[in-house]
C-alpha cells in the first residue's frame, strides 16, 4: 500500500503542513499539489465541492506525493466511507461533540472487526495499491473536530476513544462557542486557553493535534506549541490575496489618469 506520509511525519514527531481546497477544480488542485504541501484537504463542508468534483480533485493530487485529505460535511458514515473509497487517506469530521460521536467516526473509518466500514475501495485500490484492504485500517487517519463548548466539556471522553488518531481545531466555530469573534489566528484569551487545553489533553492521550491558521507566522507558532498538523489559508484565499496584491501594486504605480473608463 502507498505510504501515508501523514503517519510517517508524525512517527518522526514532525508537523504536517496542510493546504486547504475550497474551489471545485482539478487544475487548481493539481497546481496546489505541485506547490509541495505535505497534504491537501478538500473541504466538502464549507467549500463548494461536490462528490464528482472531489473525485477529480483527488485524482489531481495523486500526480504528486501530497497526501489527500477530505473534510466531510458532517458525521455521516455514508460520506466518510464513500470518500475513503474514493482515495482519501485522512478524514476530518466536523462537530464531534461526544464520546459516542467519536466512536461513530472511528467505526466508519475501519473495516471489520475493528469497525463497520463497508468494503468497496473503488478508486482507493487504484491509488493506494492492490493490498489496500489489508493495510487500510492501520493507514487511514481520522480527525475529530473540536469546535464547540460541548466538545470541550467531553474532551477527555472523546480523546480516550480507541482508534481516534487526531483532533482538529476549527478556530472560528470554537470562537463563536466561547462568545468571541469567529476568526483564525486567535489571540482572545478564552479561545487561546481552549486551544492550549485541547493541545495539552491530546498530547496526554497520545493523539495528534491539528489547527486551522490564517497565516504562516501563526502556523509556525502552533508548531512550536506542539501541533503536528497545521493548515495555512486556502486556495481561494491565496488566489484572492495574490490578485489583490497585484492590483494594489499596479494601481499605486500608475498615474491617476492612466486608466480611464471605456465609455
Ordered list of secondary-structure elements with their pairings:
Layout: H1 5-11, E1 16-21, H2 26-33, E2 39-43, H3 51-61, E3 67-71, H4 77-85, E4 90-93, H5 99-109, H6 124-128, H7 132-139, E5 141-146, H8 149-153, H9 155-159, E6 166-169, H10 171-177, H11 189-204, E7 208-213, H12 216-225, E8 229-232, H13 235-253
Parallel strand pairs: 1-2, 1-8, 2-3, 3-4, 4-5, 5-6, 6-7, 7-8
CATH class: Alpha Beta
Strand order in the sheet with the most strands: 1-2-3-4-5-6-7-8
Radius of gyration: 19 Å
Give me the count of strands.
Answer: 8
CATH superfamily: Phosphoenolpyruvate-binding domains
Mean pLDDT, all residues: 96
| Total helical elements | 13
Beta-strand content bin: 15-25%
Task: Briefly summarize what is shown.
With 263 residues, this protein is an alpha/beta fold.
Architecture overview:
The structure is a single chain. 46% of the residues lie in helices and 15% in strands. An eight-stranded parallel barrel has the order 1-2-3-4-5-6-7-8, surrounded by seven helices. The protein has helices spanning 5-11, 26-33, 51-61, 77-85, 99-109, 124-128, 132-139, 149-153, 155-159, 171-177, 189-204, 216-225, 235-253, and strands at residues 16-21, 39-43, 67-71, 90-93, 141-146, 166-169, 208-213, 229-232. The chain is globular. It starts with a helix and ends in a 10-residue tail after the last helix. It has 263 residues and is of the alpha/beta class. The chain has 13 helices and eight strands. The longest helix is centred in the last third of the chain and has 19 residues, at 235-253.
